[in-house]
Each structure stands twice: as C-alpha cells, then as structure tokens.
Amino acid sequence: MLFWVLxxxxxxxxxxxxxxxxxITDITDKYIFITGCDTGFGxxxxxxxxxxxxxxxxxxxxxxxxxxxxxxxxERLHTVILDVTDPESVKRTAQWVKIQTGEKGLxxxxxxxxxxxxxxxxxxxxVEDYREPIEVNLFGLISVTLNMLPLVKKARGRVINISSxxxxxxFSGGGYAPSKYAVEAFNDSLRRDMKAFDVHVACIExxxxxxxLSDPVKSTERKLTxxxxxxxxxxxxxxxxxxxxxLDKLKGTTSLVxxxxxxxxxxxxxxxxxxxxxxxxxxGKDAKTxxxxxxxxxxxxxxxxxxxxxxxxxxxxxx
Length: 319
Prior knowledge:
Elements: H1 2-21, E1 31-34, H2 40-52, E2 55-60, H3 63-71, E3 78-81, H4 87-101, E4 108-111, H5 127-155, E5 158-162, H6 176-194, E6 200-206, H7 216-227, H8 232-238, H9 242-251, H10 262-273, E7 280-283, H11 285-295, H12 299-307
Parallel strand pairs: 1-2, 1-4, 2-3, 4-5, 5-6, 6-7
C-alpha cells in the first residue's frame, strides 16, 4: 500500500512539473508593457523579453533611462516616458499603447515601478513620509492597471504585479510595507474579477535584492536627515548611536540578500509565457526559505524573529 502511495505522489510531482514547463508558442506576435524600466528589475526584464522576441514597450521615468535602454536593445523595443503618479501621463501613455498594439491588444502588463521611501521607526515619521511610496507603489500601479486593462482583456493576456516580501511582513516603519500589503489585496481582487475574461493575474514577491532601490547608504542618509529634525526626547530614547548600530545590524543580514536580479525576471517570464502560470511567485532564496514561511507563523514568532534584527534602545523610558 505504501508503495502505491509513493508511486502516486511521484507521478503527481512529475505531472505538476511537466505542466509548469508548457509554454505559449507565438511570442513574436505579442506586446508587453513594463513600468519602471530605468534600472533594476524593469530594465533587465525589458532587455530580456526584447531578446526573446516580444514587442516590448518599456516605460521609463527619465529621458536618460530611456536613451540608455534603447542603446542596448533591438528596434522592436519602444520606450515611453511615464510618471505613474501623474493621471494625465498615464492616460496619454495608454492611448499611445492602444495605437501601437492595434487589434492584438496587450498580452502582458508588468507593474514593476516602485520606490522604497523612508524606512525608519514609526515615531520618527510624518504622514508625508508615507505618502510617496503609497502614491507610486499603490495608486500608480492601480492607475496604470485600470487604463491598460481594456487592452489586456482584448488580448486575453496577463497582468503581473510586483509586490514584495514587505507585502507579507512589515519589517520596518514607513510607507513601503503598507503600500505592498495593499498591492497584494488589489492583486487578489483583480485576479478574481478577471477570471471571466480569461485574463490571468499574478503577483511576484521578491525577497531582499541588491538593487538601487535597496541601497543601504542611501537609506542611511535619509535616516540621518530625519534624525536632525527629531525632538530631543526621541533622540534620548533611541540614543545618538542608534543609526550606526542599525547599520551594523544590517551588515549581519547580508547572507539573506540575493545578488542575481534575474531570479525575479524568471518569475515574470513564467507568468508571461507558461500555459499554466502561477498566481503567486516567491523570488529569492530568502523569500522562499524565511520570509514567506515566517508570514504564515503566529504573530508571537514573527515578532520574535523580526525584533532580533532591531537595535536595543538607549532609554525607552525617557518619555
């Protein structure tokens, strides 16, 4: 009996693997639109999918980013300047993409544009510190999706939203995690709403990657700027050396940082080209082995592991 159970499990595993390897065939006829292509995941994705034969429309925030990308890609790839937080810019871009894609519609929409914003203890921050990441990561993503959705429905295509492990666990104060939690909720409701239109919606949750977005030097500089304006009470509570100690703690977590951004692009590729794409993708060894499993654990365990990474305050009772 045990033999047949094991044989059945092996067969199911083989079929599941085989199912995941099945790919669509007519790539060269398909258009995809990617936001945030100046650097990072979006830039690599644009170059990768251009080489594969897709008609890539890459949205960049800056002219310099657009120019650099065009120099590295084929004539198939088109760039457009887009600020996802500007409704008029999004509408103009959607109209332009509609003309470019014609009757084919848009096979893939990859919502990749995002910012980290200020990561700091909550009582250091103002509402304005929360506003930028929420405007870009959430409202910008929703705005682009709503404007491009008719084109995706026309092609019966795919929507791929780049979230984060920060959408599973709030590892720091600031607007980044709230924006990504909300992206997860928007992704889930969109996925269910689009089922009837044969539009597949996927969410990618990258772990910690070495990119311009997560540069620890820039993050420390932002914290120092805020520190200068904090009240004497808060400075006394946290201690003058709090930021340096935080940076030292961060250096101890380098083993969790992924160095290869292609891991995220591979998830995008599967979501775009698989006959049976997944609904969720975890990208990076840390996401798969630590962050995602931890997100399913009781709050007391989550707090235990995450608080171990925080610096002990100098005098929390100095209130």
